[in-house]
């Protein structure tokens, strides 16, 4: 694409004295620059792209987008916000690929990953070519790619959308984090359906207050647009049991489809029965009353199923087909995942890393546990400190054997994180093992027949972040090792 054509999308940019060069790629990482690249300087948390502009030029960049004048041998286009400019330019460079896809975005504190996988499965069963972007990976058709952030930067996102279009993908399901919404990573993404799961305490190290956190989530719904189109309608799928939905209804002009359990909703679950084998409920909707049977366990799983069915209805899938797909899903990796090695007690690995998600999982376990409940739980370093004592309190309230341990301490001292947790449970009974492997081994080695052990916080993750180091660590594999060792004695 010609540079002038690309810059015209920014508007009010004077490029009369700039040569109309051919742009071969857009990059915000100087290491990826090739001859003919347009380099965009982005200020990050730890590095500033402006410091690498010269290196980008030496690599072959023919023009630079910057927030300040730079002395370079190539044209420097100065803009107020390079992040905003990057979203506009990448959308234009890749041919506005999200306009060619049926886009479903999911936001909320808990349930995004499970809900995205359920929706993707429903659409795939309906013979749609699908794409998936989220916490665990990016999926383009059958091809699976690693991902660094729940929601990638706008440049990576638009490039991925283009790859999906080229691969014949029709519908894309993606998790949209509050960080991404505030930072404009999804600017330019043309969502057709926006889904809200729930809002509970998390990320207050970033948003500072729950009101700011809620406002961040609301951006997904306000950005659905302000027009109505019969053939391409926009939908906001909202959990009516969460009071934040009231604000989101005000924020959006899109058609609203509600779901819930406790309050009247367009899709409502009633007569819920939860067992260790799965969950059954009646779905009351404008299409009548349908029975839903699924292998997923717990009230939170019912919410995820409702959100998924609602999104499927907004995507042209019949309610009968959506329910049939839900019934066939075994589960999502690291989400209430059983570790079954033939032992006479139950081990569950779950991603629960917020007070609300931990409480939900433990409440679900209480409904079928035959004996004591143990929970191995920690809190991440360099993240919201205020939730640490609350997590500990939840663990002590809903389990007989709370075991506190480390969980991606990053740059913080694990012992200090544990002290923050202990501050919330003075006088309570609990155990502390700063070594996560030791904590999991201890929980399993001391388990009795009929016990349930929940290993919470990391779920699908296969690493432990300590300082600047990334160590291999998978809760599921550690649990299997501990069980195997137990059987030797």
Descriptive tags:
about 500 residues; alpha/beta; eleven-stranded mixed sheet; six-stranded mixed sheet; 16 helices; 23 strands; about 20% strand; globular
Model description:
The protein is an alpha/beta fold. It is 33% helix and 21% strand. The protein has 16 helices and 23 strands. Strand 19, helix 14 and strand 20 form a beta-alpha-beta unit.
Compile the SSE list and pairings.
Layout: H1 3-7, E1 25-27, E2 37-40, H2 53-59, E3 63-66, E4 76-78, H3 82-93, E5 102-107, H4 112-125, E6 130-133, E7 138-140, E8 143-145, H5 154-166, E9 171-175, H6 178-182, E10 193-196, H7 204-207, H8 210-222, E11 235-239, H9 244-251, E12 255-260, E13 267-274, E14 279-285, E15 288-294, H10 299-313, H11 319-328, E16 337-338, E17 346-350, H12 355-366, E18 373-377, H13 388-398, E19 401-404, H14 414-422, E20 431-432, H15 436-445, E21 452-456, E22 463-466, E23 469-472, H16 475-487
Parallel strand pairs: 1-2, 2-3, 3-4, 5-9, 5-10, 6-9, 10-11, 11-12, 12-13, 17-21, 18-19, 18-21, 19-20
Antiparallel strand pairs: 6-7, 7-8, 13-14, 14-15, 16-17, 22-23
Helix pairs in contact: 3-5, 4-10, 4-11, 8-9, 10-11, 12-13, 13-14, 15-16
